[in-house]
Amino acid sequence: MTNPYSSPTNLHQEVAIQPMWYVWFYKAYQPAWWIGTALVVASWLNVVTPTIGWIGFALAGTAALGSYILPSIAGIKQEDYVILDSRLVKNKDEAYYNAMERFRNGATLLYDGVAFGFRPNNEIACGVMAGTVTLTESSAMELAEHAQSVFAQLQTECKEFALAVADHTFRVSIMFGQDAYSRELCRVVDGNLQWPR
């Protein structure tokens, strides 16, 4: 029987890497969906021909369908998540190492109200929930600072987490809603607040 309190032997295991074709799809699917939808609306308003509208419909439909099908083909388990708490971080027991293993393999890690997950383009994305859609710049930066402090705490207290996120670009997404209609209100990348256009 293995000792659950011993240090794992695979600390330097690579984070699950997405195929290059999925990285390109990840970059293109949202713009493709918006362009396709805009072409459909433009055809309804007789700005473009119906043929262009159908092309837009095919483009938006392909992007939407791909966003549901391609992640599973690429081995991305978007529904997989693991919850970590201070007790697990302190004890470093079997549940802790299991959580770190699942995180390295693509699960979203939830800790102190902040979610961490790997994204294409070598990003570690951090999600934090806002209590309102009407954010000011100062309240957005306050949420971002909380997310950054949790990230720094995990890097300090969990060497497995620190190794997994090393050399990744860190970004904070401030979200509203926890259902299918949740949306990103703004981002903080390298300390710069970015509002959607």
Describe it for me?
The chain is an alpha/beta fold and 197 residues long. It has two domains: 20-73; 81-194, Alpha-Beta Plaits (2-Layer Sandwich), CATH 3.30.70. The chain is 48% helix and 19% strand. It has helices at residues 20-44, 50-73, 86-91, 94-104, 137-157, 159-165, and strands at residues 81-83, 108-111, 114-119, 123-129, 169-176, 183-189, 192-194. A hairpin with a 6-residue loop joins strand 5 and strand 6. The longest helix has 25 residues, at 20-44.
Count of separate DSSP helical elements: 6
User: What gross morphology would you assign?
Assistant: elongated
CATH architecture label of the largest domain: 2-Layer Sandwich
Structural class: alpha/beta
| Overall strand count | 7
The helix content is 40-55%
Biggest sheet record: 7 strands, mixed
CATH topology of the largest domain: Alpha-Beta Plaits
**Head-to-tail CA distance between termini:** 56 Å
Neighbour order of strands in the largest sheet? 1-2-3-4-5-6-7
- What's the SSE pattern? HHEHHEEEHHEEE
- Kindly report the average pLDDT value: 79
Number of domains: 2
Rounded to the nearest angstrom, the radius of gyration is 20 Å
Strand content: 15-25%
